[in-house]
Amino acid sequence: MYRILYFLFFLSYSRVICFSFSNSTKLCPHHQNVALLRLKQTFSVDVSASFAKTDTWKEDTDCCSWDGVTCNRVTSLVIGLDLSCSGLYGTIHSNSSLFLLPHLRRLNLAFNDFNKSSISAKFGQFRRMTHLNLSFSGFSGVIAPEISHLSNLVSLDLSIYSGLGLETSSFIALTQNLTKLQKLHLRGINVSSILPISLLNLSSLKSMDLSSCQLHGRFPDDDLQLPNLKVLKLKGNHDLSGNFPKFNESNSILLLDLSSTNFSGELPSSISILKSLESLDLSHCNFSGSIPLVLGKLTQITYLDLSRNQFDGEISNVFNRFRKVSVLDISSNSFRGQFIASLDNLTELSFLDLSNNKLEGVIPSHVKELSSLSSVHLSNNLFNGTIPSWLFSLPSLIELDLSHNKLNGHIDEFQSPSLESIDLSNNELDGPVPSSIFELVNLTYLQLSSNNLGGIVETDMFMNLENLVYLDLSYNILTLSNYNHSNCALPSLETLLLSSCDISEFPRFLCSQELLAFLDLSNNKIYGQLPKWAWNVGTETLSYLNLSQNMLTRFERFPWRIMQYLDLHSNLLQGPLPSLICEMSYIEVLDFSNNNLSGLIPQCLGNFRILTSMEINWKGLYYDL
């Protein structure tokens, strides 16, 4: 009996609940449905867009179910619109139906192309707006001052590459009215008339990005009164000067980017209070002096870039304290001393750049536990000794640059299959080219020039390197052999530099190179005239050709349409200059010196508009007057 009563009660209660729920579920108001459909018709959609959210916007369907649309759960009014990355193209005029959605709290139109639309005064009517993102969407002109009326804004992102400006009065109004603002990103917007001190009036800010905003003048030397600030980006303001900003212990900043500015001076010892700092970019500035030891107290650092400054002094043990660092770049300074001690403490390291300093000594041989290291740049230092084996066996290595040092000995076999770029040029390395190089199928860049590498390199060894774009084996004591007349093709090759490689004939594999732009076969033993097929190499792409210091006797065709540099000096060329040389209308440098040319000089040589250098032995040559 009780079970029956319970069942009847449950059934009736369920009906009431379902009836109440169905009555409380409202559809998107008709006028907002119409406004959104009109907005959709305003734009065309780039067919290459990965996902166009407006594709789901259909008549006779509830707009609250459309992609990118958010409605209030009670009123069903549209309160959020996210059309970011939708491939939209068109213009947002001041009478756009977008402005018929007054209840919007969140609007994201980022990464579209609105065809130089203005950020008009109509945007100021969204008084309920808390999040506005119009970044990188092709807006241009002066931002309407009404943007400062959005007093409820928590996040404002108007970033762009160029074309937008914000007047001083508008910025001042913005800092006075938007007291709730936590995120202000104006990257690329021209705010050149704004004084740097006015940046400090938004005490609620957590993230400020004013990169490439044409800021100038001196950044305030006073303590930053932005207690909530986590992110500060001022990069790319080349005329913005000052010392390293002063923070107090209440700051818990996570990211500081002052790169490509005119900040200068020494790093203060007070930098040690930034114990929460995870990313510090001071590259391309004018900082100087030695690195304070207290920098090592920033143990949360994952990204540290001090490159292209005027830092000097010994590399201390400060850098091996950054146990969490992933990117470490101190290149292009004047650091001295030995390689970083205890490098294997940096187990999270993925990018290391110590290039263009005055570091010396040997590279440590016992390093391990660097399984994430993908890029190593140690070029333009004074390192000596042999290359340690651990550098050839890093499992994640993609880039290795040890060029312009004093390294010697053999090159070990590579055990890093992911390698894409190798530069060991301008050292004192000897022995053969390791065979493992020819198995690195991802290799795009190989630079081994100016060493003492020897042995014979067969052209068919390169058959597996289909991704190779750049190859330089010049100035060694090796011999490049093509005796088997291999038709090996390097389909991606654009630059081939084989000067002083003991080559006796034009390499046959060049007949298949369709992208070749730079070719240097100088200082070899190529004799006679070029084979007929050679005139078809790079006819549409070759801009640089150096065949100097060979034994060529004839050179009668010039089929390269965009040739800019042609060097044939110190050959055995005889007879007149071919008149076909006149077809090279883009030529800038022309060298036929130290040959035995004679006869009539083509008149066009005096008419080349962009020719900057011409070297010819005039003896035996004459003009037709």
From TrEMBL:
Keywords: Glycoprotein, Leucine-rich repeat, Membrane, Receptor, Repeat, Signal, Transmembrane, Transmembrane helix. SUPFAM superfamilies: L domain-like. It is a single-pass membrane protein; Single-pass type I membrane protein. It comes from the Eukaryota. Residues 32-72 form the Leucine-rich repeat-containing N-terminal plant-type domain. Gene3D superfamilies: Ribonuclease Inhibitor (3.80.10.10). The keyword Repeat applies. Residues 1-18 form the signal peptide. It is found in: Cell membrane; Membrane. InterPro entries: Leu-rich_rpt, Leu-rich_rpt_typical-subtyp, LRR_dom_sf, LRR_N_plant-typ. SMART domains: LRR_TYP (SM00369). One of its GO terms (cellular component) is plasma membrane. This is Receptor-like protein 12. It comes from Vitis vinifera.
